[in-house]
Description:
Number of strands: 4
Radius of gyration: 26 Å
Shape: elongated
Strand order of the largest sheet: 3-2-1-4
Helix content: 25-40%
Distance between the termini: 64 Å
Largest sheet: 4 strands, mixed
Strand content: 15-25%
Number of domains: 2
Order of helices and strands: HHEEEHEH
Amino acid sequence: MRLGHVSERGLVELAKQGFLGNEKLNKLDFCDNCTLGKQHKVKFGLGVHKSSRPFGYVYSDLWGPTSVKTHGGGSYFMSIIDDYSRRVWVYILKNKSDAFEKFKEWHTLVENQIGTKLKVLRTDNDLEFILEQFNEFLHEMRYK
């Protein structure tokens, strides 16, 4: 039990190396937990994308801080993915608080390039996207 449900073969190997002392090895009982732990999960089905145009459904996430900073001093990464085209934008940020300004820059850039408005933005509801400024920006964008 101390070995975390090691297999019989593993115990034999440990005994050969002398790690079990003078303990005699017995046949192991069948372990339901080991069997269940080794089962594979059912695979996910193919995702159905609902967007019918670019910029219609966009995912965004911010992650960090990283343990090692980039050469420019960045330790956060913001990713933005367009569901329709599967195009990905990744921005390196020095601070988590820079996410709002970078999102506004990205939004302006893409809106001017594509000539259409962002319809749905999906996030993980982490704090970087719950700022009052961010909510106001999205509300203004919706009713422009």
